[in-house]
Amino acid sequence: MEKEAKIKVAIVGAGLTGLTTAFYLRKAGIDFRVFEKAGRPGGVIQTHRENGFTFEAGPNSGVLSRPEVAELLEDLKDDCTLETADEAAKARWIWKKNRWVPLPSGLASGISTPLFSFPDKLRLLGEPFRKKGDNPDESLAQLVLRRMGKSFLDYAIDPFILGIYSGDPARLVTRYAFPKLYRLEQDYGSFIGGSVKKAKEPKTDRDKKATKAIFSIEGGLGNLIHALVKNIGEEKIQLNCNTISFGKKDNGFFSNQGDEAFTHVVSTTGSYALESLFPFLEKEKLHAVTKMEYSRVVQVSLGFKKWEGNELRAFGGLVPFIEQRRILGALFLSSFLKNKAPEGGALLSVFLGGVRRPEIIDLSDEEIAHIVEEELTEMFQLNTFKPELLKIFRYSHAIPQYGFESHEKMETIAQLESEHPGLVLAGNIRDGIGIADRINQGKTVASQLINSGK
C-alpha cells in the first residue's frame, strides 16, 4: 500500500498505550511492529482467576473521563464488553480517628461531616472570591492550602492523591498532575464557580460519551488487552525483547532485534528505560526526563468467600497520611463490579508503600501479609482474618510523579523529538497516568503518525 511505503513504525511497549497506538495504525493501513520486553502483552494490566475470584495485577478499573475510551470500546464491541460500576462506586470512605467517614457528596453532608474543620467549612464559602494563583509550578498542596484550608488538604486531597499517585501533594505540580483542576482556577478563577460554569456549558454528543463513570471490562481488564491483540494481529507483536535498543541510520531507525528499518519509533516505556533504549540520545540532556520519581507500591489482592466485616457499600476506603496507618487504602471491588467474588464474599485490593513509605516494598511476603492482617482486622472489624485468596504484587516503578521537574522534562521531550524527527517519547511519562489518559494518548499519537504519512 502507498501509506506503508511512506511510513513504518516501531512501537516499544505492548501496554495499553502501545496497543492503542497499534490498533489505530492497523485501522489506517500503516505498517508497524510492536516490541515488548515481557513474555506477554498488556503491560501492568493482567487479570487472574483463582478459587472463585477474578482479580487484577495492576489497574483495577478506569474512568470514562474521555470520549476516546468510549470510542475504542465501541470499535472493540465484538470482542470485549464494557462494564460500568454499580451505584456503590459513588461512595468513598476516609479514615479519621479510628473510623471510616463518608466523603461528602453534597452541600448538606459537606456541612455536617467531621472530616473538615469548622473554620475551613466557613473558608470554603469564600473560595469563589479568592484571586487565582500566579505560580505555574505551584504544588497541589500549596494550591489547596491557599484556596480551601489544611483540613481539606489532610482529609480530602491527600487521601485522593494516595489513591491515584500513591504520592505526596506537596511534591506534585498541579498543572501537570491535575491539569483540569489547574485550568478551573486559571480559566474561571475558582474551583466551585468553575465547576458550576463548566457543568452549564453545552456539550456535543461526543463530549457526552465521557460520562465519568467507573468502568471495567466484563471478565476483567485483561479482556480489553485480548481484544486489542486480536484486532492488531499477534504476528505484529514481538515478545521477550529484553535487551532491545535503537540506532539511527539514513534518516531512519533500526533495532538490534532484526534488520527492519523504521521511519518512526514510538516509546511507551518508563523514563528509566530510555537511556538503554536510545543510546544515541545525549545522556546529560535525557537526564531531565530520566530523573523523574516513581512511587514504589505493594498491591495485595484479598478474597474472602464469606465476608464478616463492615458492610462494603462503597468504591473503597482511603487513609490520609496524617493518620499514620500502614496501608494507603483499599478498593472494595466486589461491591461495585460483577463476578469478582463468590456470592456473600468479598474481593479487596489493598495498597501499601508509596513515595512516603517506599521501604515497605522491601519487606518479605510474610511481613506484608502480617501488616495487612493487623490493619484490616482493626479497620474493618473482622473477628478472624482467614482469606481464601492472598496475592502480593510489587511495583518498583508503579506510578510516575509529575513533580517540580515536569516543566524541564516536557521541554526536553519536545527538544529531543525535534532533534530526532520520527522519534516519539510517549507513555505515562507525560499526558496523565490513568487508563483514559493512556487510551487518549495512544489514539493521538496514531493520528499524528497517520497524518504525517499523507
UniProtKB/TrEMBL annotation:
UniProt cross-references to SUPFAM superfamilies, sorted A to Z: FAD-linked reductases, C-terminal domain, FAD/NAD(P)-binding domain
Q: Where in or outside the cell is it found?
A: Cytoplasm
A GO cellular component term found in this entry reads: cytoplasm
Output the InterPro entries linked to this UniProt entry: Amino_oxidase, FAD/NAD-bd_sf, Protoporphyrinogen_oxidase, Zeta_carotene_desat/Oxidored
Kind of enzyme, top EC level? oxidoreductase
Q: What keywords are annotated for this sequence in UniProt?
A: Cytoplasm, FAD, Flavoprotein, Heme biosynthesis, Membrane, Oxidoreductase, Transmembrane, Transmembrane helix
Q: Which reaction does it catalyse?
A: coproporphyrinogen III + 3 O2 = coproporphyrin III + 3 H2O2
What Pfam families does the record point to? Answer: Amino_oxidase
**Gene Ontology MF terms:** oxygen-dependent protoporphyrinogen oxidase activity
The coenzyme or cofactor needed here is: FAD
Which sequence ranges are marked TM in the entry? 7-25
Q: In which pathway does it act?
A: Porphyrin-containing compound metabolism; protoheme biosynthesis
Gene3D superfamilies named in the record: FAD/NAD(P)-binding domain, protoporphyrinogen ix oxidase, domain 3, Protoporphyrinogen oxidase, mitochondrial, domain 2
Q: In what residue span(s) does the Amine oxidase domain sit? A: 16-449
Q: What is this protein called?
A: Coproporphyrinogen III oxidase
What does the protein in this record do? Involved in coproporphyrin-dependent heme b biosynthesis. Catalyzes the oxidation of coproporphyrinogen III to coproporphyrin III.
Q: Which organism is it from?
A: Mariniphaga sediminis
Instruction: Please report which protein family the annotation says this sequence is part of.
Output: Belongs to the protoporphyrinogen/coproporphyrinogen oxidase family. Coproporphyrinogen III oxidase subfamily.
